[in-house]
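Sample intake sheet
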Amino acid sequence: MNHYTTHIKAKAGWFDMDFKELYQYKDLIWLFFKRNYSSFYRQTVLGPLWLICNPLISVILYAFVFGRLAGLSTEGVPTFVFYLCSNTLWAFFMTSVTQISKTFMDNANIFGKVYFPRLVIPLSSLMRGVLDLVIQLVMLVICIIAYAVKGLHFDIGFNILLAPVLILQTCILGLGVGIIIASLTTRFRDLIILTGFGMQLWMYATPVVYTLDIVPQKFMWIYVLNPMTPVIECFRNVMLGIDTVAWNYWWISMVATVVIMTIGLMLFGRIEKTFMDTI
């Protein structure tokens, strides 16, 4: 009979993250993911249909306000498809950040009773956003095919293979920003209120409802420092064939994503040891 020895030790380092242990709790991530969905849509009339209704309402609103009233250019792409493509990635990013940022505040009662890797909760929140993303991607593909059947040509090439890379980058960036905010909210409760407002401002500072072409060249350097700017622009390029110069700045976004994720993991690992004393 084999004998197993388990060593339990305190975590003291800034980057003391046990990814092997996190993998061992993969079933718990799945259980929290199912809990999040069942509790969110409980006692709603439409239930999971809101997964389709929410993006449709947002896209229709964008198309009317920014497409029809403001008259912003969509580079020859049908207005509905343009805003659906933009909203697909941005809504995923915003949902991920918003849900992950409430990790410590919403689960303090669980954290105080039982041990498990605290990163399980942010990952389960990220999975919820991934399901929303998949549904919107299906809607986007259906719309593209429908317009293509009608004779509209989308200049889509082999660079569409980069779409999963852009989605993965958005996952990492959303997780990084979310856990940074979650860590800071243990001491600064104001961030809970400011997160929703800040995400709205971030959206307007990102070419979600417009293209990068309308940004004056002298302000371009400010826009490319926003890591979501090249991601959104490049995603529209691979999915709809819209020309963009954002590929020249993508490396800046990649570096920023790695830096934000690294800072997030370090800060999260540090805060999770003592947050029960401050929350």
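Comment: Residues 120-149 form the longest helix (30 residues). The radius of gyration is 21 Å.
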